[in-house]
Every structure is written in C-alpha cells, then in structure tokens.
Amino acid sequence: KILIIGACGQIGTELTAKLRSIYGTDEVVASDVRKGDAEFVASGPFEVVNALDFNQVQAIIEKHGVEDVYLMAALLSATAEKNPAFAWDLNMNSLFHVLNIAKAGKIKKIFWPSSIAVFGPTTPKQNTPQYTVMEPSTVYGISKQSGERWCEYYHNIYGVDVRSIRYPGLISWSTLPGGGTTDYAVDIYHKALSDGKYTCFLSEETRLPMMYMDDAIRATVEIMQAPAENVKIRSAYNLSAMDFTPEEIADAIKKHIPDFTIDYTPDFRQKIADSWPQSIDDSSARQDWGWKHNFDLEAMTADMLEHLAGKVD
Ligand code: VAH
C-alpha cells in the first residue's frame, strides 16, 4: 500500500491519480490535513491526517499496511516567508516523523520533495551543478537543505530508503499552485484565457528553471521504481527540463493568443527568485536512473492552453 501525505496539494493531487493508475485505486491512500474537493476525496481511500501528529501518521500507516510514503506536505517559498516558525515546524517535523517510522522498520520506502530553493545567492546561477555552494536565503530553502541533510543521514546511519528530487518550478493545468514564487507561470495561462492580459509579479528578465507537471510526476515515479543501488545520491537529485523568463513564456502564449499582453509589477517574490539558479545541471539523475524530460516551453504551452481552454471560467 502507498500513502500520500499532502495529497490535496499541487503535486499531491496529480501524484495520487498517477499512482492509482499504476497500482490500482485501493492500493493508494490519499491523506491531507483537511478534506480536499469532494470529488477527489470520493475518488479512492482518503484519510484526514495532520502530518505534524506522529501518532496519527503512524496509526494510518499501521491501519492500511502502508509500505511506501510520499510526503508532499509543506509550506512553499512565498508562504513560508510570511510564516517562518510554522513553515520550519511543518516542513521539518513532518519529515522527522516519517523518517523515524521508517527507522523503526514500519515503512519500506519514502519519497520526499526537495527544491532548487536549496540553492542561494552565492550558488553559480548557470547550469547549477549537483554539488556546489548552497546558502539558501529563504525559510523554505533552509528547510529543504536541512531536510536533504537528514534524509542522507537516515539513509547512511539507519539504512532508511528515502529518495528525493530538487524540483524546479512546476506548472500544471489540473491543480492550482499553493504559495510558490514560480506560481506566476501557472497564473499566466489562466489569465491569458480569461482576461487576455496578465500582470506578472516577477520582472520580465527573471530566468528560472521550470518543468511541466507531467514530467515531474513521471520523475517521481521513476526514482521510486529505480533499483536502490541506482539511487546513489541520498540527499536530493538536481532535476531539469527547461528554463525561461516571463517574457519568453508570454511570447510562447502569444503564438496561440496573438492579442495577449503582459506587464510587470515585481513584488516581494522578486527577491526570492533572484536568489535561485537560472538553469540546472541534472546529469547525475540522467546517469544514475535514466531521467529525461519530455516537455519544452512550446509543448507545455500547447498542452496547458488546450486543457484550460474548456476549463477556465
Ligand atoms: C516555490 N514552486 O515556488 C515552489 C518551488 C522552485 C520553486 O520550490 O516555492
């Protein structure tokens, strides 16, 4: 059995659907701190679980005979800056609970998401290597860097099989993002269809590593299905697909919606974006477990607009 904690989130929702399509609905228990949308909750086994409550998490794992846990609950970069203490508590202690339950032998495999937010202003910004200077300047980035250190420690010292990926900004049509700095790259498609224009909270030349959700979900499944001996890095793997600026994604949209216009009013999230890399070297993931991306900016834009065209109010 598989348990997804944080199943109602931007990644969790699509990850639940994908894992159920692979392993069968009844094999995948979705959980979140509160019930998500009724249709999703009714789509298969669902439990209300507070990721910060050790006993609740352990009880659900024992009740369902869970072997693999995907811990997707976290506060993302922008929200975490407004709530540092809670962000540290949720992002770190939820991880400790799952690592300790695995250390006790009650879980076989853990997936825990890291992020390019582990890199900071002193990190080389172009083609950022797997191993480099990492001085994250956001609460979220600090929690993800610390989490990576603990994942590697629990693997090396206690033999816990935990696997992790440094996700870039993720873009999906079926789920709205939750409080990230890269959320503009989702909002822009919705606004292009509903208003024909978009006011971007990052400046036009802000280049960031990005990935279509289809690719991110497939990478998550592939690293978890990889033979343990192939997962040589137990902190977290760099992962990449593309990088673009708000101006470049706007130009890609204009090819489908010629009258679309964009303007820029950078806010507090500009400082967060400026601390992150512009492009990522993910050669280790490609070498160790055969990672390769499918979607580039043009393919993502066509797929996003096609799916959203019928959906946007
Ligand atoms: C965020 N979407 O913006 C997340 C992600 C690299 C960005 O970690 O916080």
From TrEMBL:
Gene3D superfamilies recorded: NAD(P)-binding Rossmann-like Domain
Domain of life per record: Bacteria
SUPFAM superfamilies assigned to the protein according to its UniProt record, in alphabetical order: NAD(P)-binding Rossmann-fold domains
Pfam families reported for this sequence: Epimerase
Residue stretches making up the NAD-dependent epimerase/dehydratase domain: 2-238
PANTHER family attached to this UniProt entry: L-THREONINE 3-DEHYDROGENASE, L-THREONINE 3-DEHYDROGENASE, MITOCHONDRIAL
Family: Belongs to the NAD(P)-dependent epimerase/dehydratase family.
Protein name (database record): L-threonine 3-dehydrogenase
Species this chain originates from: Flavobacterium arundinis
